[in-house]
Amino acid sequence: MAHGTSGRIVIDVDPAYKQELYTALTGAGLTLKDWFLRESQSFCEEQRQPMLLKLEKSSSPSRPSSSPRS
Q1: Which of 13, 15, 23, 42 lies 20 to 30 Å from 60, alpha-carbon distance?
Q2: Which tens digits make up the pLDDT trace of 18-35?
Q3: How many helices (H) and strands (E) does the chain have?
Q4: Among candidates 23, 4, 1, which has minimal Cα distance to 12?
């Protein structure tokens, strides 16, 4: 894939998906650029400093491996 210097990012997607995405973004009050910048900044930050422990994995209480059954 070519990487130009213009600052533009161009991707080809299925037209039906494009419409679905724009509908969802409009419903959320976002533009594609706003959404992309937010998500890409978050992704880049995570790549620079990955979390050591994911909260969703550590938030569930551990259960004993063997429990009496009735």
Answers
A1: 42
A2: 999 999 999 999 999 999
A3: 3, 0
A4: 1
